[in-house]
Design a protein that fits this description.
By secondary structure, the protein is an alpha/beta fold. The protein is built from 12 helices and 16 strands. The termini are far apart. The structure holds threonylcarbamoyladenylate and magnesium ion.
Protein backbone atom coordinates (compact mmCIF):
# COMPACT_ATOMS: atom_id res chain seq x y z
CA UNK A 1 0.00 0.00 0.00
CA UNK A 2 1.20 3.47 -0.84
CA UNK A 3 0.61 5.95 1.96
CA UNK A 4 -1.77 8.75 0.92
CA UNK A 5 0.06 11.87 2.08
CA UNK A 6 -1.35 15.35 1.47
CA UNK A 7 0.89 15.84 -1.60
CA UNK A 8 -0.80 12.94 -3.41
CA UNK A 9 -4.00 15.00 -3.38
CA UNK A 10 -2.48 17.58 -5.74
CA UNK A 11 -3.18 17.05 -9.44
CA UNK A 12 -3.68 18.82 -12.77
CA UNK A 13 -6.43 16.41 -13.86
CA UNK A 14 -9.40 18.75 -14.39
CA UNK A 15 -11.70 16.01 -15.78
CA UNK A 16 -11.23 13.95 -12.62
CA UNK A 17 -11.95 17.01 -10.49
CA UNK A 18 -15.21 17.68 -12.39
CA UNK A 19 -16.27 14.05 -11.96
CA UNK A 20 -15.56 14.25 -8.21
CA UNK A 21 -17.71 17.40 -7.94
CA UNK A 22 -20.55 15.51 -9.64
CA UNK A 23 -20.24 12.81 -6.99
CA UNK A 24 -20.52 15.30 -4.12
CA UNK A 25 -16.81 15.48 -3.29
CA UNK A 26 -14.77 18.51 -2.20
CA UNK A 27 -12.33 19.87 -4.79
CA UNK A 28 -9.91 22.72 -4.13
CA UNK A 29 -9.17 24.73 -7.27
CA UNK A 30 -7.12 27.76 -8.30
CA UNK A 31 -8.64 31.13 -9.11
CA UNK A 32 -6.88 34.38 -9.97
CA UNK A 33 -7.51 35.63 -6.41
CA UNK A 34 -6.94 32.72 -4.00
CA UNK A 35 -7.61 28.96 -4.04
CA UNK A 36 -11.23 27.96 -3.43
CA UNK A 37 -12.66 24.90 -1.69
CA UNK A 38 -15.43 23.82 -4.06
CA UNK A 39 -18.55 21.67 -3.99
CA UNK A 40 -21.62 21.32 -6.20
CA UNK A 41 -23.68 24.38 -5.21
CA UNK A 42 -26.95 22.45 -5.55
CA UNK A 43 -25.83 19.51 -3.38
CA UNK A 44 -26.55 20.59 0.22
CA UNK A 45 -24.70 17.59 1.73
CA UNK A 46 -21.57 18.35 -0.27
CA UNK A 47 -21.75 22.03 0.72
CA UNK A 48 -22.15 21.01 4.38
CA UNK A 49 -18.80 19.24 4.10
CA UNK A 50 -17.17 22.56 3.12
CA UNK A 51 -18.26 24.10 6.42
CA UNK A 52 -16.99 21.05 8.34
CA UNK A 53 -13.63 21.03 6.53
CA UNK A 54 -13.04 24.74 7.17
CA UNK A 55 -14.47 24.86 10.69
CA UNK A 56 -16.62 27.73 9.39
CA UNK A 57 -19.79 28.97 11.13
CA UNK A 58 -22.95 28.10 9.17
CA UNK A 59 -24.14 31.70 8.92
CA UNK A 60 -21.29 32.67 6.56
CA UNK A 61 -22.69 32.43 3.03
CA UNK A 62 -20.60 31.06 0.17
CA UNK A 63 -19.84 32.50 -3.27
CA UNK A 64 -21.09 30.44 -6.22
CA UNK A 65 -18.61 30.27 -9.10
CA UNK A 66 -20.04 30.21 -12.62
CA UNK A 67 -18.49 29.44 -16.03
CA UNK A 68 -19.81 32.65 -17.63
CA UNK A 69 -22.20 35.58 -17.19
CA UNK A 70 -24.58 33.90 -19.65
CA UNK A 71 -25.94 31.63 -16.91
CA UNK A 72 -26.51 34.48 -14.42
CA UNK A 73 -30.30 34.39 -14.84
CA UNK A 74 -30.35 30.76 -13.71
CA UNK A 75 -29.03 31.80 -10.30
CA UNK A 76 -30.25 35.36 -9.65
CA UNK A 77 -33.54 37.30 -9.87
CA UNK A 78 -34.30 40.96 -10.66
CA UNK A 79 -30.80 41.56 -12.03
CA UNK A 80 -30.32 45.35 -12.28
CA UNK A 81 -28.62 47.00 -15.26
CA UNK A 82 -25.66 47.92 -13.04
CA UNK A 83 -24.98 44.21 -12.46
CA UNK A 84 -24.88 43.53 -16.20
CA UNK A 85 -22.55 46.49 -16.70
CA UNK A 86 -20.15 45.18 -14.05
CA UNK A 87 -20.39 41.58 -15.25
CA UNK A 88 -19.63 42.62 -18.83
CA UNK A 89 -16.68 44.75 -17.78
CA UNK A 90 -15.07 42.60 -15.05
CA UNK A 91 -16.02 38.94 -15.65
CA UNK A 92 -14.13 36.71 -15.77
CA UNK A 93 -12.40 38.52 -12.92
CA UNK A 94 -12.02 39.25 -9.21
CA UNK A 95 -15.54 40.60 -8.66
CA UNK A 96 -18.42 38.99 -6.74
CA UNK A 97 -21.94 40.31 -7.27
CA UNK A 98 -24.55 39.99 -4.50
CA UNK A 99 -27.97 39.62 -6.14
CA UNK A 100 -31.41 38.36 -5.20
CA UNK A 101 -31.25 34.57 -5.27
CA UNK A 102 -33.22 32.00 -7.18
CA UNK A 103 -35.40 30.02 -4.73
CA UNK A 104 -33.93 26.60 -5.43
CA UNK A 105 -30.41 27.44 -4.22
CA UNK A 106 -29.94 25.51 -0.96
CA UNK A 107 -30.13 27.66 2.20
CA UNK A 108 -26.81 26.29 3.36
CA UNK A 109 -25.09 28.11 0.46
CA UNK A 110 -26.67 31.49 1.16
CA UNK A 111 -26.78 31.27 4.96
CA UNK A 112 -30.55 31.58 4.66
CA UNK A 113 -30.27 35.07 3.12
CA UNK A 114 -32.53 36.21 0.27
CA UNK A 115 -29.39 37.01 -1.75
CA UNK A 116 -26.54 35.06 -3.31
CA UNK A 117 -22.91 35.87 -4.15
CA UNK A 118 -21.90 35.03 -7.73
CA UNK A 119 -18.65 35.29 -9.63
CA UNK A 120 -16.90 34.12 -12.81
CA UNK A 121 -13.22 33.58 -11.94
CA UNK A 122 -10.44 34.54 -14.38
CA UNK A 123 -8.30 31.43 -14.22
CA UNK A 124 -8.04 28.94 -17.09
CA UNK A 125 -8.10 25.92 -14.78
CA UNK A 126 -11.12 27.21 -12.83
CA UNK A 127 -12.98 28.00 -16.06
CA UNK A 128 -12.22 24.58 -17.53
CA UNK A 129 -13.42 22.93 -14.32
CA UNK A 130 -16.63 24.97 -14.32
CA UNK A 131 -17.32 24.22 -17.99
CA UNK A 132 -16.68 20.48 -17.60
CA UNK A 133 -18.75 20.33 -14.42
CA UNK A 134 -21.51 22.32 -16.07
CA UNK A 135 -23.06 23.81 -12.92
CA UNK A 136 -22.30 26.28 -10.17
CA UNK A 137 -19.52 25.57 -7.69
CA UNK A 138 -19.92 26.95 -4.18
CA UNK A 139 -16.49 27.81 -2.84
CA UNK A 140 -15.01 29.82 -0.01
CA UNK A 141 -11.27 30.36 0.22
CA UNK A 142 -9.59 26.99 0.89
CA UNK A 143 -8.21 27.81 4.34
CA UNK A 144 -9.32 26.97 7.87
CA UNK A 145 -11.77 29.58 9.15
CA UNK A 146 -10.12 32.86 10.15
CA UNK A 147 -6.73 31.89 8.75
CA UNK A 148 -4.72 33.10 5.76
CA UNK A 149 -6.17 32.34 2.32
CA UNK A 150 -4.06 29.95 0.21
CA UNK A 151 -2.41 31.26 -2.95
CA UNK A 152 -0.68 27.99 -3.96
CA UNK A 153 -1.85 24.36 -4.17
CA UNK A 154 0.67 23.34 -1.51
CA UNK A 155 -0.86 25.84 0.94
CA UNK A 156 -4.23 24.11 0.56
CA UNK A 157 -2.66 20.74 1.34
CA UNK A 158 -1.06 22.23 4.45
CA UNK A 159 -4.32 23.89 5.57
CA UNK A 160 -6.86 21.19 4.88
CA UNK A 161 -4.97 17.94 4.18
CA UNK A 162 -7.25 14.94 3.98
CA UNK A 163 -10.40 17.04 4.56
CA UNK A 164 -10.35 17.79 0.83
CA UNK A 165 -10.73 15.06 -1.82
CA UNK A 166 -8.59 16.65 -4.52
CA UNK A 167 -6.50 19.78 -5.04
CA UNK A 168 -6.22 21.11 -8.60
CA UNK A 169 -2.87 22.80 -9.12
CA UNK A 170 -2.96 25.95 -11.22
CA UNK A 171 0.23 27.55 -9.95
CA UNK A 172 0.45 30.66 -7.75
CA UNK A 173 -2.54 33.04 -7.82
CA UNK A 174 -2.06 36.17 -9.91
CA UNK A 175 -4.03 38.65 -7.78
CA UNK A 176 -3.31 37.14 -4.36
CA UNK A 177 -6.18 38.67 -2.37
CA UNK A 178 -9.89 37.91 -2.59
CA UNK A 179 -12.49 39.30 -4.96
CA UNK A 180 -14.27 42.61 -4.47
CA UNK A 181 -17.82 41.98 -3.23
CA UNK A 182 -20.47 44.41 -4.52
CA UNK A 183 -24.03 44.35 -3.20
CA UNK A 184 -26.58 44.99 -5.96
CA UNK A 185 -29.52 43.34 -4.21
CA UNK A 186 -31.15 46.57 -3.09
CA UNK A 187 -30.63 50.32 -3.43
CA UNK A 188 -27.37 51.78 -4.62
CA UNK A 189 -24.46 49.43 -5.38
CA UNK A 190 -22.09 49.19 -2.40
CA UNK A 191 -18.78 47.47 -1.72
CA UNK A 192 -19.04 44.88 1.08
CA UNK A 193 -15.42 43.77 0.77
CA UNK A 194 -12.70 45.61 -1.15
CA UNK A 195 -10.66 43.26 -3.36
CA UNK A 196 -9.06 42.67 -6.74
CA UNK A 197 -11.30 45.10 -8.66
CA UNK A 198 -10.74 48.59 -7.30
CA UNK A 199 -13.35 51.06 -6.14
CA UNK A 200 -12.10 53.49 -8.81
CA UNK A 201 -12.68 50.89 -11.55
CA UNK A 202 -16.22 50.24 -10.29
CA UNK A 203 -17.00 53.95 -10.13
CA UNK A 204 -15.66 54.52 -13.62
CA UNK A 205 -17.80 51.71 -15.05
CA UNK A 206 -20.98 52.74 -13.22
CA UNK A 207 -20.38 56.48 -13.67
CA UNK A 208 -21.19 57.27 -10.04
CA UNK A 209 -19.65 57.01 -6.57
CA UNK A 210 -19.76 53.56 -4.95
CA UNK A 211 -19.95 53.47 -1.15
CA UNK A 212 -17.99 51.11 1.09
CA UNK A 213 -20.40 49.27 3.36
CA UNK A 214 -18.16 46.82 5.20
CA UNK A 215 -19.94 47.36 8.51
CA UNK A 216 -23.50 47.54 7.20
CA UNK A 217 -26.66 45.54 7.93
CA UNK A 218 -25.95 42.82 5.35
CA UNK A 219 -23.76 40.10 6.82
CA UNK A 220 -20.47 41.07 5.29
CA UNK A 221 -17.32 39.00 4.96
CA UNK A 222 -14.51 38.97 7.44
CA UNK A 223 -16.39 40.84 10.14
CA UNK A 224 -14.98 38.52 12.75
CA UNK A 225 -12.19 40.24 14.63
CA UNK A 226 -9.72 37.50 13.71
CA UNK A 227 -9.42 37.02 9.98
CA UNK A 228 -6.70 36.49 7.40
CA UNK A 229 -4.31 36.04 10.32
CA UNK A 230 -0.95 34.28 10.57
CA UNK A 231 0.49 33.00 13.86
CA UNK A 232 3.05 35.79 13.85
CA UNK A 233 1.88 39.13 15.16
CA UNK A 234 1.02 41.55 12.34
CA UNK A 235 2.05 45.13 13.04
CA UNK A 236 0.85 47.69 10.54
CA UNK A 237 2.44 51.12 10.31
CA UNK A 238 2.00 54.07 7.97
CA UNK A 239 5.59 55.01 7.13
CA UNK A 240 9.10 53.64 6.77
CA UNK A 241 10.20 55.80 9.70
CA UNK A 242 7.53 54.32 11.93
CA UNK A 243 8.52 50.83 10.79
CA UNK A 244 12.11 51.49 11.73
CA UNK A 245 11.15 52.63 15.23
CA UNK A 246 9.03 49.50 15.79
CA UNK A 247 11.79 47.25 14.42
CA UNK A 248 14.40 48.77 16.71
CA UNK A 249 12.16 48.34 19.72
CA UNK A 250 11.31 44.71 18.97
CA UNK A 251 14.78 43.69 17.79
CA UNK A 252 16.19 45.00 21.09
CA UNK A 253 13.77 42.57 22.70
CA UNK A 254 15.34 39.76 20.58
CA UNK A 255 12.19 39.24 18.55
CA UNK A 256 12.49 37.60 15.14
CA UNK A 257 10.97 39.88 12.52
CA UNK A 258 9.91 40.17 8.89
CA UNK A 259 9.18 43.38 7.03
CA UNK A 260 6.93 44.02 4.04
CA UNK A 261 7.04 47.49 2.52
CA UNK A 262 6.80 49.30 -0.80
CA UNK A 263 9.73 51.55 0.07
CA UNK A 264 13.18 50.93 1.53
CA UNK A 265 13.45 51.24 5.30
CA UNK A 266 16.51 53.26 6.20
CA UNK A 267 19.09 51.92 8.63
CA UNK A 268 17.65 48.47 9.24
CA UNK A 269 19.69 46.47 11.72
CA UNK A 270 20.49 42.76 11.79
CA UNK A 271 17.47 41.80 13.89
CA UNK A 272 15.28 41.43 10.80
CA UNK A 273 15.16 37.90 9.31
CA UNK A 274 13.16 38.49 6.16
CA UNK A 275 12.41 41.55 4.09
CA UNK A 276 10.13 41.78 1.11
CA UNK A 277 10.10 44.90 -1.03
CA UNK A 278 7.36 44.59 -3.65
CA UNK A 279 7.62 47.11 -6.48
CA UNK A 280 3.94 48.10 -6.49
CA UNK A 281 0.51 47.39 -4.95
CA UNK A 282 -0.16 44.51 -7.37
CA UNK A 283 2.97 42.73 -6.26
CA UNK A 284 2.27 43.53 -2.62
CA UNK A 285 -1.22 41.97 -2.88
CA UNK A 286 0.26 38.93 -4.60
CA UNK A 287 2.90 38.49 -1.90
CA UNK A 288 0.90 39.37 1.20
CA UNK A 289 -0.47 35.95 2.20
CA UNK A 290 2.69 34.20 1.06
CA UNK A 291 4.68 36.53 3.33
CA UNK A 292 2.35 35.70 6.24
CA UNK A 293 2.86 31.97 5.66
CA UNK A 294 6.61 32.41 5.30
CA UNK A 295 6.78 34.28 8.59
CA UNK A 296 5.07 31.34 10.27
CA UNK A 297 7.26 28.77 8.52
CA UNK A 298 10.33 30.64 9.80
CA UNK A 299 8.80 30.80 13.29
CA UNK A 300 9.02 34.60 13.35
CA UNK A 301 7.47 36.62 16.17
CA UNK A 302 6.12 39.49 14.11
CA UNK A 303 5.71 40.83 10.61
CA UNK A 304 5.84 44.59 10.21
CA UNK A 305 3.98 45.98 7.21
CA UNK A 306 4.07 49.53 5.91
CA UNK A 307 0.49 50.02 4.68
CA UNK A 308 0.06 51.35 1.13
CA UNK A 309 -2.17 54.39 0.50
CA UNK A 310 -5.93 53.64 0.65
CA UNK A 311 -6.51 53.96 -3.09
CA UNK A 312 -6.54 51.36 -5.88
CA UNK A 313 -5.57 47.91 -4.62
CA UNK A 314 -4.24 49.61 -1.49
CA UNK A 315 -7.79 49.76 -0.12
CA UNK A 316 -8.12 45.96 -0.15
CA UNK A 317 -4.59 45.45 1.17
CA UNK A 318 -5.29 47.79 4.10
CA UNK A 319 -8.56 45.97 4.80
CA UNK A 320 -6.77 42.59 5.05
CA UNK A 321 -3.94 44.09 7.10
CA UNK A 322 -6.36 45.60 9.58
CA UNK A 323 -8.17 42.29 10.07
CA UNK A 324 -4.93 40.31 10.34
CA UNK A 325 -3.57 42.80 12.87
CA UNK A 326 -6.64 42.45 15.07
CA UNK A 327 -5.76 38.83 15.80
CA UNK A 328 -3.60 39.55 18.83
CA UNK A 329 -4.29 41.95 21.67
CA UNK A 330 -0.93 43.69 21.36
CA UNK A 331 -1.19 44.23 17.63
CA UNK A 332 -1.24 47.64 16.08
CA UNK A 333 -3.47 48.66 13.23
CA UNK A 334 -3.07 51.43 10.69
CA UNK A 335 -4.70 54.72 11.58
CA UNK A 336 -8.47 54.49 11.79
CA UNK A 337 -8.98 56.18 8.43
CA UNK A 338 -10.30 53.11 6.56
CA UNK A 339 -12.47 51.91 9.42
CA UNK A 340 -14.17 55.30 9.72
CA UNK A 341 -14.74 55.54 5.99
CA UNK A 342 -16.11 52.02 5.66
CA UNK A 343 -18.65 52.27 8.46
CA UNK A 344 -19.68 55.77 7.40
CA UNK A 345 -18.78 57.20 10.85
O1 LIG B 1 -11.84 35.74 -4.34
C1 LIG B 1 -12.75 35.20 -3.73
O2 LIG B 1 -13.84 35.75 -3.54
C2 LIG B 1 -12.51 33.78 -3.19
C3 LIG B 1 -12.34 32.84 -4.38
C4 LIG B 1 -12.22 31.40 -3.96
O3 LIG B 1 -13.44 33.02 -5.26
N1 LIG B 1 -13.56 33.35 -2.34
C5 LIG B 1 -13.73 33.85 -1.09
O4 LIG B 1 -14.76 33.23 -0.39
O5 LIG B 1 -13.05 34.73 -0.61
P1 LIG B 1 -14.96 33.42 1.18
O6 LIG B 1 -16.08 32.50 1.53
O7 LIG B 1 -13.67 33.20 1.87
O8 LIG B 1 -15.46 34.86 1.31
C6 LIG B 1 -16.66 35.22 0.67
C7 LIG B 1 -17.47 36.11 1.52
C8 LIG B 1 -18.03 35.42 2.75
O9 LIG B 1 -17.32 35.75 3.90
C9 LIG B 1 -19.45 35.95 2.83
O10 LIG B 1 -19.65 36.72 3.99
C10 LIG B 1 -19.61 36.82 1.60
O11 LIG B 1 -18.59 36.49 0.74
N2 LIG B 1 -20.90 36.53 1.00
C11 LIG B 1 -21.26 35.45 0.28
N3 LIG B 1 -22.57 35.50 -0.06
C12 LIG B 1 -23.04 36.66 0.46
C13 LIG B 1 -24.32 37.30 0.46
N4 LIG B 1 -25.38 36.74 -0.12
N5 LIG B 1 -24.42 38.48 1.09
C14 LIG B 1 -23.34 39.07 1.69
N6 LIG B 1 -22.12 38.50 1.73
C15 LIG B 1 -21.96 37.33 1.12
MG1 LIG C 1 -12.16 33.39 3.16
Amino acid sequence: MIARGPDSLITRDVARAAELLRRGALVAFPTETVYGLGADALNADAVARIFAAKGRPANHPLIIHLPSAEVLCAWALDIPEAAWLLARRFWPGPLTLILRRQEYIPDIVTGGLSTVGLRVPAHPVALELLRLFGGGVAAPSANRFGRVSPTEAQHVAEELGAAVDLILDGGPCRVGIESTIVDLSHGEPAILRPGGVTREQLEQTLGRPVALRTGGPVRAPGQHAVHYAPQARVIVVDSAGEARAVIEELAADRQRLAVLALEPIPGLNAGVKAISMPSDEQEMARELYRAFRQADALGLDAIIVVAPPASGLGLAIRDRLRRAAQAGAGNRTPNDYDAKRSTGV
